[in-house]
Amino acid sequence: MTTDRALILQSDLTIVLETNHPDFEQMRNGLLPFAELVKSPEYLHTYRVTPVSVWNASATGLSAVDTLSFLSQNARYGVPQNFEAEIRSWFERCGIFSLHAEGGALTASTLSNAGELRLQASQPQVLKQMLHDPELAGLLERTDVQGGFAWLKPGKRGLVKERLIRLGYPVEDRAGYVDGIPLQIDLRQEMVSGGTFSLRDYQTQAIDSFYRGGSDLGGSGTIVLPCGAGKTVVGLAAMAAVGAHTLVLTPNTVALHQWRSELLDKTELTADQIGEYSGDAKEIRPVTLTTYQILTYRRRKNEDFLHFDLFSKGDWGLIIYDEVHLLPAPVFRATAEIQARRRLGLTATLVREDGKEEEVFCLIGPKRFDAPWKDLERRGFIAAVECIEVRVPFADNDRLEYLAAGKRAQFRLASENGGKLDALEALLQRHKGSRILIIGHYLSQLNELYTQLGVPMITGKTPNSEREELYQAFRDGRERVLLVSKVGNFAIDLPDANVAIQISGTFGSRQEEAQRLGRILRPKSDGGGAFFYSLVTEGTVDQDYAEKRQRFLTEQGYCYAILPSDSLLDPVVEPPVV
Fold first, then answer.
1. Distance between CA atoms of residues 84 and 15, nearest Å
2. Are strands 149-152 and 142-144 parallel, antiparallel or unpaired?
3. What is d(CA 498, CA 323) in angstroms, rounded to the nearest whole number?
4. What burial letters (b/e) apply to 351-375, b meaning 16+ CB within 10 Å?
5. Most CB within 10 Å of its CB: which of 49, 343, 403, 571?
6. What phi, psi does 398 have (nearest 5°)?
7. Which 3 state secondary structure label does DSSP give 564?
8. Could you tell me which residues come within 8 angstroms of residue 330 by beta carbon, excluding any fewer than 6 positions away?
9. 483: three-class secondary structure by DSSP
10. Which of 499, 485, 502, 486 shows the shortest CA–CA distance to 420?
11. Where are the beta strands (DSSP E) in 68-139?
12. What are the φ and ψ backbone dihedral angles of 179, each rounded to 5 degrees?
């Protein structure tokens, strides 16, 4: 058996990869399409193959033969029998169930539940087994078990897909879409802001993989691109391809206004064709921009959501879910009812800390395109970033208080370690003159820093008008440092931000780590790189959770250097890379 091969496959469906192996980078890129990184200590990275990771790989065109060929060629001790069996089984399950519009193309009549959709099973015995599930059986109108068919009302389309994926069978949805009201959307060749505009090759590939020429095979899915790589531009190109009234869901009003600016700058749409549906305005126009917050607003917890009818108020041909990893559970439920509309999810990471990746897969659509971050960095489409973990010790008295506290209290004490202020001030001095974002989780910690540093602060309580004024001052260079709460995690367009300092985070949220790094990924006007610092309290749960937060970025090829806080005073220190 060849012992120099890079991958060690284990019967629990995990794969171990040595970071110092000469083929490490090639192997990491090969695993990324169908496996998820679950552990990333210094010398050994552990990946896991799961049903959803395989089903997403299948949606991008990868096959069981491709996957197993890659593994067998690079497995040090061969491919365990159960490993191969599970991978083949998960790939095979992708093609068993499919949905079709009964009688041909989907029509307005079908959409109104006057018609039916046909669920088809290539293996009738599997359908027979699944019908023993009372929830699935209750969603179907009638069945022909021997022929492998079942029929359902169009309004149950999402619920059937959701139930089947929970039973272990993804559905290939070929029932098609209603076209919505036509709207010609042309991309500009010259931006209003100045300069030429055209799609990058990977953006074109992303749209082609999503739209599939307008066929039933396309029209729903998720595009995964790092922050700064032009996800919004992909959204604009999707709108141009579909050519219909569009509803865009964004994480907040700042993102909503950025979408409006991009639409006016890079498309031929006029201001009166773009509506804002938010707390400030209730405009429904050919292109309507809203937020997850307004969609999930209700006066009381036990009342209905007041604005869910926005999904049905317009005859939408496309619904775009910006930052789809943030999609609230109620919007998932609404999305289950609008499966006849084309749906595009945009995100930097499909990681959801609530484990709802299956819902994204079946209700928004599978991953259609994913560009490795480091590839885009090498090509200059996103900034090169140095990631550095600064380890800050506790003072003796604080250490004693920490040891006596419960686990949750320990995390907060470690996150708010007062010693981080000295490290922060040293970093501000080291990067004096740079555009610096200081990002934290706890408001009490941020308020203390606001008092001591005297720099502008943005939190959830900051009025939108004031937020946008401060962001613009930062862009213009009138403000060089901004202190932001978790509202700064996503959807902020600050191209020249080149230093981000994370002083506290949300436990082990990989999603948050990726989004925070994303604030500094846009290519810099001077062609320079960027720095991402994470301040953690040494030898505590803060350090443990930091390792978990870093996992997704490690999977993308980033290395975190370790820097003791007392060495920050030495500008020539070379931190060890792990």
1. 13
2. antiparallel
3. 22
4. bbeeeebbbbbbbbbbbbbbbbbbe
5. 343
6. -65, -35
7. strand
8. 295, 296, 305, 308
9. strand
10. 502
11. 97-101, 117-121
12. -80, -25
Q: How far apart are CA 199 and CA 267, in angstroms?
A: 12
Neighbour tally for 153: CB within 10 Å? 18
- N-to-C CA span, the chain: 30
Two tokens at 29?
């890129």
Helices (H) and strands (E) in the chain, counts: 24, 23
The SS3 call for residue 303 is coil
Per-residue pLDDT of the chain (578 residues; tens, 9 = 90+): 456 899 999 999 999 998 889 998 899 889 988 998 777 666 788 899 999 899 989 988 899 999 999 999 999 999 999 999 999 999 999 989 999 998 655 544 455 555 799 999 999 999 999 999 999 999 999 999 999 999 999 989 999 999 999 999 999 999 999 999 999 999 999 999 999 999 999 999 999 999 999 988 889 999 989 888 999 999 999 999 999 999 999 988 888 999 999 999 999 999 999 999 988 889 999 999 999 888 887 777 777 777 788 888 889 999 999 988 878 878 877 888 889 999 999 988 776 666 677 888 888 998 898 887 888 888 999 999 999 999 999 999 999 999 999 988 999 999 999 999 999 999 999 999 999 999 998 999 999 999 999 999 999 888 888 988 998 999 899 999 999 998 776 667 787 899 999 999 877 677 778 788 888 888 887 878 999 999 999 999 999 888 888 877 877 778 888 999 988 866 544 444 44
- Which residue has 């930097």 as its token pair? 348
pTM: predicted TM-score of the whole model, two decimal places: 0.85
**Cβ–Cβ under 8 Å, residues 530 and 521:** yes
Classify residue 575 by its DSSP letter: P
Where do the domains of the chain lie, and which CATH numbers do they carry? 7-93 (no CATH), 98-174 (3.30.70), 201-371 (3.40.50.300), 377-569 (3.40.50.300)
Do 66 and 75 meet the contact criterion of CB atoms below 8 Å apart?
A: no
Torsion from C-alpha of 439, 442, 448, 449, nearest 10 degrees: -10
Pairing of strands 149-152, 117-121: antiparallel
The two tokens of residue 27 are: 């192997």
Q: Output 291-297 pairs: Cβ under 8 A, ≥24 positions apart.
A: 291/249, 291/250, 291/251, 291/252, 291/253, 291/255, 291/256, 292/249, 292/250, 292/251, 292/326, 292/327, 292/328, 292/331, 293/252, 295/249, 295/328, 295/330, 295/331, 295/334, 296/328, 296/330, 296/331
- In angstroms, the CA 548 to CA 510 distance is 7
77 CB-near residues (< 8 Å, 6+ apart): 1, 8, 9
Q: What are the percentages of helix, strand and coil residues in the chain, rounded to 5?
A: 40, 20, 40
